[in-house]
Design brief:
- The chain is α+β, with helices and mostly antiparallel strands.
- It has one domain: Gcn5-related N-acetyltransferase (GNAT) (Aminopeptidase, 3-Layer(aba) Sandwich).
- The chain is built from five helices and seven strands.
- The chain has helices at residues 14-25, 32-40, 84-98, 113-121, 150-156, and strands at 4-8, 44-51, 54-64, 67-75, 103-109, 125-130, 140-146.
- It has a seven-stranded mixed sheet with strand order 1-2-3-4-5-7-6, with helices on both faces.
- A hairpin with a 2-residue loop joins strand 3 (54-64) and strand 4 (67-75).
- The chain starts with a strand and ends with a helix.
Amino acid sequence: MGEIIFRRMTLEDVGKVAETDKICFGADGWDEDFFIDELSDKNSEYIVGEIDGKIVACNGIKFHRNAAYNMTIAVLPEFQGRGIGEKILSVSIKRAKNHGAKYMTLEVRVDNVPALQLYKKFGFQIIGRIKKYYMGGEDAFTMYANFEDLKCKLLSDK
């Protein structure tokens, strides 16, 4: 397996990114139209992670004043457990800081233990629970990280 390379998402990537999102999130995955709209939004920024020319991960952030909202992090199942989630989250935090964000929020399924562990490793804290957030009726945790937090700063500045 080659090295992962992160780059900005383009319109040519939309089909593969939507497919990746559906594989990772099922009915909650976003379609091509959603990603096309996001690419045209000046307050959104999306990247993909490629290995040997294949898109294996994607991440999207929405910016609002000094805040960043992590829209999605998806890593294809066959590439999970290799540190790609940690790398793409680190890149996401760097991008948010460069954009002037002081903190980041996100939602995550309450039963997504690997994602919860990853976010906690970066200093994210659970600040709320949203009942029936996902299409299947599952709840989500809202998580928050202040970029001044030591863990978040150290990991994102690698």
